[in-house]
């Protein structure tokens, strides 16, 4: 497993392009299964999770080619409807193939995704929704066999929680179901709108994506299309964090600033100066970050759980005490113990972390507990005095395309050691 070696306390400055969104690219690539034809997806980041998704597509019978950041998927012939356990486990969000495979073939056989480092990640909302479409489920030996004997029938589905993955699976299954599906209390994340834009380009009839009520009129079939994935708002905020924690500055080129609303207000509360010029955003950090009174992770447009760990790194060196409440995942504080090794003062009680900002972190050897937790350790290492070694960066490779290259271009001293 690779490591990052970081020499901290360098001010990062620069103008950077932000990768395409991982959380958009994954469901869009899965959605190509629904299209009888060729889909051309631009701006796909180079990530372990994207590679795992491509492995699943190839297993199902798609022909996949990558040309730079473009992935071309020919889904004319889908030959299988099963996803083997090893491929399911390579990527936890592989459950997103369920709606697409069912929509295309009327059956699907997958393994139970299982828990992961940030929590149990149950799939009850996905399963309940599929049942509403008239899908039968047989369970045994860790496998789930889904069959829609008479095809998928549209339904009105009310989600008890606006789950991102469940909303995506319902949109996928509904796109070619017979009749009109309505999702009530749908997730409103920008990645949902991106998926709907892709599917509408393929001939689907989806309206209201990005709002709480989404309406999907089922169509007979979908064809391939060309689509550009939206910029990754989590990666964008991570690079804002890298500039902020090192008293530096950064301009992010070609992002969608409105996707960062709740994030921008947190950076402003910490004393950062943020200006927006069209699709460019510039952040200039203060000489010392200020505490944030309270951050509560929430479904979009609230503060994203994926930035809870990176922002905790920032609060650990801010002036004053910050309170961070994690409401989305039950086990997303594994980075706390590692940040403490660098000198952070954090107390956790259940879903609440109280972070007492210290004057300075000091380098140490730490281990990435998960994707965003690993990224928090990198940010902490950039600000720490001395050398920080971040181990198990395979977690970070799941979500960041060339993290060390982007940070180096901003002046960081960070090396990857395999
Ligand atoms: C997606 C993102 C992930 C992000 C998360 C929340 C992708 C590939 N991943 O994950 O980066 O952190 O949204 O913004 O897009 N839940 C249930 N039952 C279900 C489904 C979910 O109880 O059937 C719970 C989960 O355990 C969790 C919460 O709902 O506590 C949110 O999960 P969800 O919105 O589904 O997240 P993901 O789609 O897995």
Describe this structure in words.
The chain is α+β, with helices and mostly antiparallel strands and 418 residues long. The protein has 2 domains: 199 residues, UDP-n-acetylglucosamine1-carboxyvinyl-transferase, Chain (Alpha-beta prism), CATH 3.65.10.10; 206 residues, Alpha-beta prism (UDP-n-acetylglucosamine1-carboxyvinyl-transferase, Chain). 32% of the residues lie in helices and 25% in strands. It has 14 helices and 23 strands. It has a 4-stranded mixed sheet with strand order 21-22-1-23. The protein has a 4-stranded mixed sheet with strand order 2-14-16-15, covered by helices on one side. Strands 4-5-3-13 form a 4-stranded mixed sheet, covered by helices on one side. A hairpin with a 2-residue loop joins strand 7 and strand 8. Helix 6 packs parallel to helix 7, helix 8 packs parallel to helix 10 and helix 8 runs parallel beside helix 12. The radius of gyration is 21 Å and the shape is elongated. It starts with a strand and ends with a strand. The mean pLDDT is 96.
Question: How does the SSE layout of this entry go?
Answer:
Layout: E1 3-7, E2 13-17, H1 22-31, E3 38-42, H2 48-60, E4 63-67, E5 70-74, H3 85-90, H4 97-105, E6 107-111, H5 124-132, E7 136-140, E8 143-147, E9 156-158, H6 164-175, E10 180-184, H7 190-201, E11 205-207, E12 213-217, E13 226-228, H8 233-245, E14 249-253, H9 261-269, E15 273-277, E16 280-284, E17 294-296, H10 308-315, E18 321-325, H11 335-341, E19 345-349, E20 352-356, E21 365-367, H12 371-383, E22 387-391, H13 394-397, H14 403-409, E23 413-417
Parallel strand pairs: 2-14, 3-13, 9-10, 17-18, 21-22
Antiparallel strand pairs: 1-22, 1-23, 3-5, 4-5, 6-8, 7-8, 10-12, 11-12, 14-16, 15-16, 18-20, 19-20
The structure holds uridine-diphosphate-N-acetylglucosamine.
């Amino acid at each position: 497993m690779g490591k990052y070696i970081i020499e901290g306390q360098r001010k990062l400055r620069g103008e950077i392009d932000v990768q395409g969104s991982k959380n958009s690219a994954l469901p869009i690539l899965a959605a190509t299964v629904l299209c009888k034809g060729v889909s051309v997806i631009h701006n796909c980041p180079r990530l372990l999770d994207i590679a795992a998704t491509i492995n699943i597509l190839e297993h199902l019978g798609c022909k996949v080619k990558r040309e730079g950041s473009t992935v071309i998927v020919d889904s004319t012939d889908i030959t299988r409807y099963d996803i083997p356990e090893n491929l399911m486990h390579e990527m936890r969000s592989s459950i997103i193939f369920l709606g697409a495979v069912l929509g295309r073939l009327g059956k699907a056989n997958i393994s139970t995704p299982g828990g992961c480092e940030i929590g149990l990640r149950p799939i009850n909302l996905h399963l309940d929704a599929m049942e509403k479409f008239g899908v039968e489920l047989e369970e045994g030996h860790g496998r789930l066999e889904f069959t829609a004997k008479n095809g998928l029938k549209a339904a009105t589905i009310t989600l008890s929680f606006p789950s991102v993955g469940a909303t995506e699976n319902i949109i996928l299954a509904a796109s070619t179901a017979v009749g009109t599906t309505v999702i009530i209390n749908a997730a409103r994340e920008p990645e949902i709108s991106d998926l709907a834009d892709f599917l509408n380009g393929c001939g689907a009839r989806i309206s209201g994506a990005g709002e709480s009520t989404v309406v999907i009129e089922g169509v007979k079939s979908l064809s391939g299309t060309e689509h550009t994935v939206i910029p990754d708002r989590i990666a964008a905020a991570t690079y804002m964090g890298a500039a902020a924690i090192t008293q530096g500055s950064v301009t992010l080129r070609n992002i969608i600033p409105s996707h960062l609303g709740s994030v921008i207000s947190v950076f402003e509360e910490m004393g950062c100066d943020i200006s927006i010029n069209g699709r460019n955003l510039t952040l200039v950090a203060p000489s010392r970050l200020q505490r944030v009174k309270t951050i509560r992770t929430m479904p979009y447009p609230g503060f994203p759980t994926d930035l809870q760990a990176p922002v905790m790194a920032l609060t650990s060196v801010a002036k004053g005490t910050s309170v961070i409440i994690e409401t989305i995942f039950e086990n997303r504080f594994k980075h706390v113990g590692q940040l403490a090794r660098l000198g952070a003062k954090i107390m956790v009680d259940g879903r609440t972390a109280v972070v007492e900002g210290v004057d300075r972190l000091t380098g140490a050897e730490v281990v990435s507990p998960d994707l965003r937790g690993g990224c928090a350790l990198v940010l902490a290492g950039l600000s720490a005095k001395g050398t920080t070694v971040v181990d198990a960066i395979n977690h970070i490779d799941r979500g960041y395309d060339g993290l060390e290259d982007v940070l180096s271009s901003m002046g960081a001293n960070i090396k990857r050691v395999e």
